[in-house]
Please model this.
Amino acid sequence: MTTGQGGNAAPQRQLPLDLRLRDASRFSSFYPGGNRLARDAVEALSIGTGMTEPQILLHGPAGLGKTHLLQAACHQGHERGEPVAYLPLAELVTAPPLAVLDGLERARLVALDDLDAVVGQGDWDEALFGLLNRLRDGGCRVLLAAAHAPDGLGSRLPDLTSRLAWGPVFRMQAPEEEDLKRILAQRAVLRGLELPEAVAEYLLRHYRRDLVALLELLDRLDLAALAEQRRLTIPFVRDQLARF
Model:
């Protein structure tokens, strides 16, 4: 997705994109837990302050907040009136790399998500290597996210591996139990729900302690509670888990 990006890319190569940022992906709605340093670094980069290198890479399994932080940075940049670009590369892997990446150097902030989906695939390595060089030459700030650290992405181009590690590299930390409860409570507030602590503890005892799965479950519970005009109580949640 590009937001507020000016200029005209080469018409024979540019791929029209209609990719949206989640409105809830803001720094204020990110519970950092063990990722406070990463959150603070990404927020500083998003406004161009406190940087020694204009590039950050976040890595770790799904569900730890990488996408949230990349999108929060793009929201921040856009609200400052800057041209920004966010690309979820896992959704674009079948497209020609040059058609996806062409013209991004005109942005002031570029966020490339799901790098592991494309690194090592076809012509992507060369295209990414060229893009990172252009972005650096143009003074663009860059945010990257992947499942693995640069040396574990399997690039067939050693120079790309070194470019991906140009700036700080943060390994995202999985939330502890107290973090999970706070994140669930925060999501519940955003949805207009009351999530008693006892219900949150019940969910953690009787469901997977996987943040993505828990947030998806909370969304389903919200819809069920709305449909049945019920509150989130342990009996209600127990019945819904049996149905799910």
